[in-house]
Amino acid sequence: MSKKVNLSLDQVYDLSVQILSKYGLSDAHAKAIARVILAGERDECISHGVYRLGVLAHTIQQGHVSKTAEPKVTIDETSIVKVDAQYAFSPLAFEKGIEQLAIKTKQVGIAALQINHCYHFSALWPEVEAIAAHGLVGLAMTPSHAWVTPAGGNSPVLGTNPLAFSWPREHAENPYVFDFATSAIARGDLELHHRTNTDLPDNVALDKDGKVTKNAKAAIDGGSMLTFGGYKGSALSTMIELMSGSLIEDLTSQESLKLDDGNKCTPCHGELLFAFDPSKFGLGNISKSEASAEQLFKSIVDQGARLPSQRRFEARKRSQEKGVFVSEHIYADIQNLLK
User: Cross-referenced InterPro entries, in alphabetical order (predicted)?
Assistant: First the structure.
């Protein structure tokens, strides 16, 4: 069993900023990304924690991503806030747009945040949680690289294409949140299986010959991933390509992979987020809406089922009390980034 290195949350953040700054990112970008890395590690989402620093360093070294570009925010008479990341990483663009998204939503009831030309590496739940923190319902989606074969097909066309949702809960410690890839396994988890030389779960990937494989290397080297739920996951994934690719005039997963040209960088594309103000929907009785939602949640947990993100929120509590525990080999890798 791999040994673990115990780090405080402050150490995770400081180490992330230090590494990202060493690779030339501006202070604003380094800190915005470090906040996302910290959130992933804190919530024990290993594939989105400090492990990602190596992927980011590789992308920076390829010379594709802008290290200093300031996101451009466009606000007009519509309910759409547009942020052009100018080919930088996405976290700073999101931070620049979230406040304006909240303002628009509270004015008109429903608004969208459109982020273009960004290198997106992170989970979506930090973003929909940020929307919920404003008392708003959140929805987010984004394409990736074309690593996923559509149901019934034989070659990758779709991305892992995550979908995330949040529902604010005034009298609960945490919002209701889910965030999942429409692929049968997250790309980061596939890469971790490859790194640790462990078998994949059943029916999540194909090898280069289109045969189901449990070998992560075979899936990565010329193979592909599968969608969850067969045709249902494939349809959802296609919707996400259309909504957060074609609709906002940004890259689909196929186009992102073509732009990458074999460099194995973080995907470059757009992202689309929606926010809904519960006080503007319904028939004017927000307390009835809240009570209805809480009864639904109670009916789920009272029978022993768990709400999505429950384990992540429990991990967050542990990390806030005891810090995080990073495997020795991942810690060694990120230390090497400082050399």
Answer: Mal/L-sulf/L-lact_DH-like_ah, Mal/L-sulf/L-lact_DH-like_NADP, Mal/L-sulfo/L-lacto_DH-like_sf, Malate/L-lactate_DH-like
